[in-house]
Amino acid sequence: VNFLACSLSAPQDRQAMIETMVASLDDRLKQNPRDEEGWMRLIRSYVVLGEADRARDALGRAVAVFGADSEQAKKFTAFAASLGVTATE
Questions:
Q1: Which fold has domain 11-82?
Q2: pLDDT confidence tier of residue 1, bands split at 50, 70 and 90
Q3: Per-domain residue ranges for the chain?
């Protein structure tokens, strides 16, 4: 039994919880910006929430942390593209 699914009665409750968790992840990345997996989770989370602009913003911030020519930036960009998110110049 999925405890979280059972304990939250309304879809808006689940949505609010998810948004809170994503905001918390975003805040953690501001404190610890070199968390590669965290950035990928954040980008994917915004895509799942239907917030393409925020996903694009997260991608841009992730690339800025590691540098545009870094291997991490290439990985983030390819990952985001696989989710339908492209960087804005």
A1: 1.25.40
A2: very low
A3: 11-82
